Amino acid sequence: MQFKISALVLLLGALSGCATYAPKPLPKRANLPQSAALITLDPARLPFRNLSSHIFNPADGLDMDEVAMLAVANNPQLRQARDALGIARAQSFAAGLLPDPQLGFTSDHPTNGALGNTNSFNFNLNYDVNALLLRSSRKGAAQAQAQRVNLDLLWQEWQVVSQARLLFTRLTAQQALMAQLQTARSLLADRYQRSQQALAAGNITLDLASADLVALQNIERRINELERSRLQNRASLNGLLGLLSTTPLALVGQPRAALMDAAAVQSGLVERLNQRPDLQALQAGYRSQEEKFRGAVLAQFPALTVGLTRARDTSGLYTMGFGLTMSLPIFNRNRGNIAIENATRTKLFDAYQGRLNSAYSEVATALENQPLLQTQLQRTRQGVKQLQTVARRAEAAFHAGNLAAADYVRLQIALLDKQTEVINLQEALMEQQIALETLLGPDLPEQASNRRAR
């Protein structure tokens, strides 16, 4: 009787600590904010050093860093990735819990026994020893997996920062390009109007007037294409920031990215790449697989279950016993799972080596492209200076009546085209620098390093 009471008390105590369930209905409407000013964030909580020390104030427009800060704080994909990190940490917590014992009870009622027979019962309390022995490898694998998810999140955040900076760079360059094209359109529209007047007066032929129209239409086409591209990039940026696609954004300032010394990058490349979150995530995933492989090897040994039994037979005789169950590793011996875990470890090893090789190759390509773009930009800027000198002389000659209008317009358009080339090269160089910074990985403040280590 005392054993029954103890078992009942133990069962009630276990049930008293159970979790409760409450439904969580799905939303029926979108919850995208309609203005960046409605979003508040704490820079100190951001994972990257250059962002955590920057002031976020959307009231005076968003500069390049503020766009990146908003992207990290409000990106929908990052929100889901953080939810996945919560799942991984919960799985790590679950893997560290001790296995529960098993309590069993049976009862028999005699139907044709002798006088004095009574109901029999059998209480048994069992424990899976193997589950306890494998807890260490199971917990180690889950903890390493949680670290992998955490590092993957950090790398995804870094990719979002890079994408936000790229879109800011493109939109800023497109704004400058639009100003250039608008100036060219004004020149060509004025030239076309003059040619039409000259054609009506019979001073020029139709082919000359048609050439002016073709040039004007070409500029109109380029403006239309640029407007569509700007609209697409603005929608992409809004989506990256977790805003409605129609939300207006006031972008201020110029894109910034430091030129890197190739020799300095090469000298510290091994250490820099070793700190890159995606490579560290692969390392954590490999550690997790090592633990799974170790657990599979341990599981080849006999599975052991031990238990205590308290019973009473139909004659009223009470007994106390001990039970032990052991599997016989004759046929299976967990060989299938061992082979699977070993093959998976080989795959992860090769994946890490492949990612490491790609990282070195991509950095080398970026370092090689950077001086090429710098040289091209320098030559193009020199060409702009030369054309500006010629254009100033041409303008004076045109106003003095010593240069034909068509020649003057052609020189001005050539200058605008060269200035447009400078804008495009500046954008390409800036994007190359951003890509190189992305490949080398983020500069992490202390709190991000602590979060990464958890």
TrEMBL record:
Keywords: Signal. It comes from the Bacteria. Pfam families: OEP. Residues 1-21 form the signal peptide. One of its GO terms (molecular function) is efflux transmembrane transporter activity. Belongs to the outer membrane factor (OMF) (TC 1.B.17) family. This is Cellobiose phosphorylase. It comes from Sulfuriferula plumbiphila.
